[in-house]
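Work Package 4 report. The design task specified in the project plan requires that, given a folded chain encoded as structure tokens, an amino acid be chosen for each position. We show below one input record used in the internal validation round.
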């Protein structure tokens, strides 16, 4: 891309090492105006002083958008309705954040008349795909600048960027001693890189910010009740909360009991295995509660069908296909299954563990008379005789064939 062809760039900006260096470098390389965009999706104190930092680094302005409620309601809750989890462990906190950020960034680029958007994702990672597929669907006319993929990008890694930041007096918090990367939002905090690139090495004990170490968690279990309406959590312990406030409350409750730590070597979309360490206390708690209410309210075939779609749905999020038609179509099916998923789940939290210990729903399909071992409850046990005979027909036929061949 010719430098002269770019006049104004909107950069997805966090204030961390990568985007701070990128902001300064873009301004020098393209001689263009750089507008910093930051979506507040639950970074907490990380947004403090961000405007001053962006301006000092060379931005013409910072647009800090409070997207916490939008993020929770329009991105996180639909994902939770699908019980999404990637490769058995990862609750997709970073993956679901990227389309939310990209949507706001693209909207701002159009508002300010920018002709390009930029991000700080590397060529080795998933985020480049997530950002750029979102741009393609939402604002295909915008040019995309991915500095890590440019031939003239002078940095090999984070150590080079730390050196550059020191030379240019760009304030950053990353150091050579603890060079791992952090990403925080309402769903989680993720940690990657640096010392974590050795998959045998245990993370620093003081690295975790959202969760108490399970061995230091309270010695008394805590019980928590989560109420659901149509597949979405609406109240904790009887208190109705907005989507973002509810996730924050769940984070606080789960975090003090050490719930939601994950250490995973995952398969990136680009084909690389990488190690990520995650803290997702609130979403871990909410996922268990959602399952508990579903146990009462979803019939068997509907539940099994939806469960069969968890892996492909999760891959769509992980691969950056949030705005793709296949995810939207699958979401419609998932949401249809959630119409009767209303009720209350009771959970027990203790030393890093979370257990379902109770559930109730006005839409419960559970009939204690049918389930009871103490009474018939309208179920004729003799009917099971024919059911079993029909189910066994194919097995008897197979046994007969094997008997003839032996």
């Amino acid at each position: 891309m010719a430098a002269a062809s770019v006049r104004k760039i909107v950069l997805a900006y966090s204030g961390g090492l990568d985007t701070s260096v990128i902001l300064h470098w873009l301004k020098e390389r393209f001689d263009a105006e750089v507008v910093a965009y930051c979506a507040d999706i639950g970074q907490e104190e990380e947004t403090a002083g961000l405007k001053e930092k962006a301006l000092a680094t060379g931005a013409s302005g910072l647009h800090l958008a409070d997207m916490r409620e939008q993020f929770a309601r329009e991105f996180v809750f639909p994902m939770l309705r699908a019980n999404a989890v990637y490769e058995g462990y990862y609750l997709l906190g970073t993956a679901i954040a990227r389309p939310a950020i990209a949507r706001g960034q693209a909207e701002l680029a159009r508002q300010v008349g920018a002709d390009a958007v930029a991000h700080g994702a590397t060529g080795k990672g998933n985020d480049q795909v997530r950002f750029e597929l979102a741009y393609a669907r939402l604002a295909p006319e915008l040019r995309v600048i991915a500095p890590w993929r440019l031939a003239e990008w002078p940095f090999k890694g984070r150590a080079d960027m730390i050196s550059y930041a020191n030379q240019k007096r760009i304030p950053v918090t990353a150091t050579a001693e603890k060079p791992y990367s952090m990403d925080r939002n309402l769903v989680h905090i993720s940690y990657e890189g640096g010392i974590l690139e050795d998959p045998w090495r245990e993370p620093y004990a003081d690295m975790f910010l959202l969760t108490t170490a399970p061995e230091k968690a309270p010695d008394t279990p805590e019980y928590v009740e989560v109420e659901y309406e149509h597949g979405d959590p609406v109240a904790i312990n009887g208190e109705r909360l907005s989507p973002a406030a509810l996730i924050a409350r769940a984070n606080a409750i789960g975090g003090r009991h050490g719930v939601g730590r994950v250490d995973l070597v995952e398969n990136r979309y680009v084909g690389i295995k990488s190690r990520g360490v995650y803290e997702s206390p609130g979403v871990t708690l909410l996922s268990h509660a959602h399952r508990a209410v579903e146990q009462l309210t979803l019939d068997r075939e509907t539940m099994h069908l939806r469960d069969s779609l968890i892996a492909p749905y999760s891959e769509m999020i992980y691969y950056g296909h949030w705005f793709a038609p296949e995810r939207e179509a699958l979401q419609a099916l998932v949401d249809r299954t959630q119409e009767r998923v209303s009720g209350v789940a009771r959970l027990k939290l203790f030393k890093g563990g979370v257990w379902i210990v109770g559930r109730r729903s006005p839409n419960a399909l559970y009939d204690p008379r049918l389930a009871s071992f103490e009474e018939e409850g309208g179920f004729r046990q003799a009917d099971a005789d024919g059911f079993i005979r029909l189910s066994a027909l194919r097995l008897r036929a197979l046994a007969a064939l094997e008997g003839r061949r032996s």
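Residues 3-68+95-177 form a domain with the Rossmann fold fold (CATH 3.40.50.620). Validation will be extended to a larger panel in the next phase.
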